[in-house]
Amino acid sequence: GENVEQHPSTLSVxxxxxxxxxxxxxxxASNYFPWYKQELGKGPQLIIDIRSNVGExxxxxxxxxxxxxxxxxxxxxxxTQPEDSAVYFCAASFGNQGGKLIFGQGTELSVKP
Amino acid sequence: ETGVTQSPTHLIKTRGQQVTLRCSSQSGHNTVSWYQxxxxxxxxxxxxxxxxxxxxxxxxxxxxxxxxxxxxSSELNVNALELDDSALYLCASSLSIQGARGYTxxxxxxxxxx
Lengths: 113, 114
Hints:
The complex is a heterodimer. Chain A contains no helices and eleven strands.
């Protein structure tokens, strides 16, 4: 069935270090892969996304890579800052089902000053 | 440009009651999706509305229903509330069914069923 697995569930890094979060998806028809940041008491905020015709995308300190063959995609945050601390969710969209997003279980990132 | 607005922000209901949650989509967005997020979990897709019709549904029973209005705002209705319905309910809007430029989420409605 439709499934997105996300690892790790918690991640603690020192300020300035890099953080990597990985996801795998089950449906080879998936064509859109967003990443969301959710802070306490708020809704998910889109931070970067990638579509299946692209292998890598970068936006300042944030990058996402996609390996369609292996059905893996990853979020890379460089030069982490305390304000990066939040829960991060990956998701995969199944385009032929009304654009529904299947979310991973989330990664709680803690950046220690 | 206004974002996605949801109301109310918090709500407490008794088991067996009915509840209506509201969502105003981001300006220019014509598609609205609803998600349920249990504590410590990722959001789960409930359904999506486009042109005032349901366009895709997740694994939720029929007591979860919705509406979309001509101005693209939307309602989520839940009948016969159960304790397990306690969750954060999120609304997301997008420019198209396929989310061509992404999905914008509101801050959610925290529903507690007692």
